Amino acid sequence: MVDTTDSVKGIITVLGGGTMGRGIVHVALASGFQVRLSDISEEAVANAVAGVHKTLGRAVERGKLSEDECQSCHSNLQTSVDAAEAASGADLVIEAIPESIDLKCALYARIAPVLGAQTILATNTSALPVTQLAEASGVAERFVGMHFFNPPFALKLLELIRTEHSSEDTLSRARVFAAQLGRQLVEVRDSPGFATSRLGITLANEAMRMVEQEVASASDIDTALRFGYGHPMGPLELTDLVGLDVRLAITRHLYAELGTDTFQPPRILEDLVSQGRLGRKSGHGFYHWVDGKKVETAS
Questions:
Q1: CB 51 within 8 A of CB 8
Q2: Other CB atoms within 10 Å distance of the CB of residue 134
Q3: Lowest-pLDDT range of 35-44, 97-106, 179-188, 288-297
Q4: 3-state DSSP call for residue 31?
Q5: Three-state SS at 167
Q6: Judging by DSSP bridges, how do beta strands 34-38 and 120-123 pair with one another?
Q7: CA distance to 133, 199, 207, 215, 234, per residue, from 212 (Å)
Q8: Which domains does the chain have, with CATH numbers?
Q9: The sheet that has 34-38: what strands, in order across it?
Q10: Are 159 and 188 in contact (CB under 8 A)?
Q11: Under 8 Å between Cβ of 233 and 204
């Protein structure tokens, strides 16, 4: 167990206000941190803030937060379109921008000069090589992977990815942050797909191949995993939530790195992405979605 007796809740900066970024912001605010959120435009920031306020409001409705706690969360949130400004003076900076090594490295170059001597820089990547990102960050000894799960305010798991450069002090402090954020922590060394993405993609790819082979419908496959194995959500519905384009990028990366047939992208995944059927965000994937809610199995 991590000892958090002497820990102090400070400032967490989240760079990127997409689905994962705003979910991480929610978790950090609800855990009592001061949070800075940055994205590339005022519109992107405004959309992210609206999303955070929406999920915080739902937390109040479910009795997870009081009205006073929710208002405190709102007060503790600051925003900026300048990533360096947002990162300056933060205790922990979590990068949650799109899964592109070039984009991430360019962002690190902008913020590295303003990071404090003790600031931990973390990436929320679900599959990219953390060691490569660490080496490009300029602060490799203070760089880790912090892989949150979607949605972060509902799924408590945090996968902490260490590299050969990560200092013991950094790892110790990252564990404290994880405990303060109420996360169930697992630690893995940097390896393609880490533990969770590698296992999750294996299951999802096989489920897709079963749909291709008409073994069963997407709905029946998901139901089998939910009621037979106790999964809270089937692999195909989860793929729709994550985004078929995201899943495709990850499985292509794992196939290139590991070379096993398990990670060869299923044809149905390639086809659906080429058709623009990306899951919930496009309204169609393995299911139909209306206003963000699953309504039926897609044909």
A1: no
A2: 26
A3: 288-297
A4: coil
A5: coil
A6: unpaired
A7: 36, 20, 9, 8, 17
A8: 11-189 (3.40.50.720), 196-294 (1.10.1040.50)
A9: 77-80, 34-38, 11-15, 92-95, 120-123, 143-148, 157-162, 184-189
A10: yes
A11: no
Q: State the pLDDT confidence band at 3, using cuts at 50, 70 and 90.
A: very low
Provide the b/e sequence for 227-254 (b: ≥16 CB within 10 Å). Answer: eeeeeeebbbbbbbbbbbbbbbbbbbbb
Q: Give pLDDT tens digits for 205-251.
A: 999 999 999 999 999 999 999 999 999 899 999 999 889 998 999 99
Q: Tell me the sheet residues that pair with 186.
A: 159
- pTM, 2 dp: 0.85
Q: Are strands 293-297 and 287-290 parallel, antiparallel or unpaired?
A: antiparallel
Three-class SS state of 34: strand
Which amino acid would we find at residue 217?
Answer: S
User: 74 is written with which tokens?
Assistant: 């709102």
Rounded Cα distance between 229 and 223, Å, is 10
Residues 175, 184 contacting (CB under 8 angstroms):
no
Query: Which residue type occupies 150?
Result: N
**Residue-wise burial string across 68-80, b where 16 or more C-beta atoms lie within 10 A, e elsewhere:** eebeebeebbebb
* pLDDT for 200 beyond 60: yes
Among 209, 271, 213, 267, smallest CA distance to 235 is for 209
Residue 292 near residue 282, CB atoms below 8 Å: no
Nearest to 56, CA basis, from 81, 33, 22: 22
What sign does the dihedral 162-168-169-174 (CA atoms) show? positive
Q: What percent of the chain shows pLDDT beyond 90?
A: 87
